[in-house]
Sequence to fold (348 residues):
Amino acid sequence: MNIKTTVFVAVSTLALAACGSSGGGGDAGGARDFVRAVGSSTVYPFATAVAEKVAGAGLKSPVVESTGTGAGMKLFCAGVGASHPDVENASRRMKASEFEDCKKNGVTEIIEIQVGIDGIAFADASGGPNMKLTPEQVYKALAATPFGKPQTAKNWNDIDASLPAIPILIYGPPTTSGTRDALKELILEAGCKSDPAMAALKDSDKDAYEKTCTTVREDGAYVEGGENDNLLVQKIAQNPKAIGIFGFSFLEENADKLKGVPMSGVTPTYATISDFSYPGARPLYIYVKKAHLGPIRGLKEFIAEWPKAWGPEGYLKAKGMVIAPDDVRAKNADVIAKLTVMDGTGLK
Fold:
């Protein structure tokens, strides 16, 4: 796993974190003089920008690690204390199972903050084949057992005669990534449910439905690129016959090398993600341990900085973040101001 860290802290300083509690309890179990955030590679560039602002205000630079949303959730939910992360960056909403894991380990007060919008963008090189896809075509190309049958497609035209006769090769996120979860939910499941029998299977046998609709083939047509989206961008730019899947901000930042692949006739752009007309649009979140707000120096300042950054005139837009609607920003600014704890309602 490639882990990016935006601020390298001396080993002796990091060792301070070990004095915290390793689980349970209602306080942070010791102090740390810098914020530690883990999680999504998509949220990573936005969190690092916020961290730099906090550091510029005279506090120690927060440490932000790109572990992937899923792996970050495991670290975040492992316990309360200075040896555990304070913040989880997430490119999808927390799962009900993760919320329960948190509670089991004493992480009972969690603040959920939607910080913006992003999209899982499909892209190819600027000199690529000008692919136009649908969720059904992507599902047929990537599923291990499309509609419950063996995967036999080698080339795109095996899926649909209108597609080019080139090998199916997609570079995408690993299983630890929230982008992978969004790919499953927003694209693969949508494609799978185009078959009424699969839609019915969801009600009759949920496990079989999950396996059939979301398990990705492992024969080389889909290549996991790790948690470094910039590496995915480089691979796609160098291979005009490949397609990449990553956060929209990485497509926008590399518009000179890449172009978005339309999905159901909608090209991934700032506007189509903002209004959710692009099928891969999704909210972005950070999760904060309320118990850490007192003992961990700089944590209050870190979360208070987000509303200054996420608006139409804020600096995160220049980083590629799609700005959330006014009402969403106002609601989440209020969550930060009141330190409102989530109750798990609506988690799946």
